[in-house]
């Protein structure tokens, strides 16, 4: 038998991706505030998760930096896991602040949303657990489920009749069941019905609710605590996960949960234990941003108005659209159509990258307009003028 070299196999796979129009590359470009500079052209950035525009808020940043330089807490690395010598006081301060914001018993901070989602469920589940996850949950949750000993089933996206049927059939056969969902979904921008999920949970004595608020934290709810705050169901959520890398313009993630859950995670969660903790300087920045969260209502309202306008305009151009958030997909269909659409937008001054399988289901390649509070209503009108009708690109 003849052996192919590793390089030959990988090169062939790359060639195949290229021929399918599915090859990924790290995008070039300089990111500056609302704009991206690519090949000497300044384009409005429609692909960022900086939902409140805080990453370009120079007042907030220079204010923070000027105070920071005077303090002794200017630590660029924790140099260790929190379980060893990396547990700087800033983590405790941030966790108290978060628990307080949610009026919950406790919070635990992680290096990223990826660490949170790939670590929490593998820690708290065992072979007698069942996880019922929405078909469209984020890759980081899927990877967590691959590491978990639990039995895993997926319910059709936002289909709570399907979920209910699975619960009735399988909940009695397992010690505990975890319903896992995002609140705002990454790819379609649609939302889970958290009130209904909270009701559903109450019908069963052994069901727990895990909600990933990555796209809603900072954006939804009176104080920016997420869709759970907006729906008034934060108390029903057993594992409420949020991330700092999107609207909070920082890095890291958290879960709010009961104290015993937190204690357990500190003992068992591998993506917390076996990794270097976030740099204290970064944690201080997160604290700074979160202290401003409740006064960002104006930005949230602007983003909401902007999103409604764009959602309607995209639907009017024939793309159909189930979004109810600041994430507005423009589903082109084929990879080629999505790439073409991205090119047209670029020509007219907008930076929006095409999304293709496996990130989205086959045949639903798309642009994903990711709106932020840094985008004006005038910008929105120009974006919509630039977007061709669906019938013109198919
Ligand atoms: C971005 C995202 C994550 C990952 O968070 P990071 O902090 O970027 O690792 C997790 N879940 C969802 C739904 C996300 O969109």
Automatic annotation (TrEMBL):
Keywords: Pyridoxal phosphate, Transferase. InterPro entries: Aminotransferase_I/II_large, AON_synthase_class-II, PyrdxlP-dep_Trfase, PyrdxlP-dep_Trfase_major, PyrdxlP-dep_Trfase_small. Residues 42-387 form the Aminotransferase class I/classII large domain. GO terms for molecular function: 8-amino-7-oxononanoate synthase activity; pyridoxal phosphate binding. This is 8-amino-7-oxononanoate synthase. It holds the Pfam family Aminotran_1_2. GO terms for biological process: biotin biosynthetic process. The keyword Transferase applies. The keyword Protein biosynthesis does not apply. Its cofactor is pyridoxal 5'-phosphate. It comes from the Bacteria.
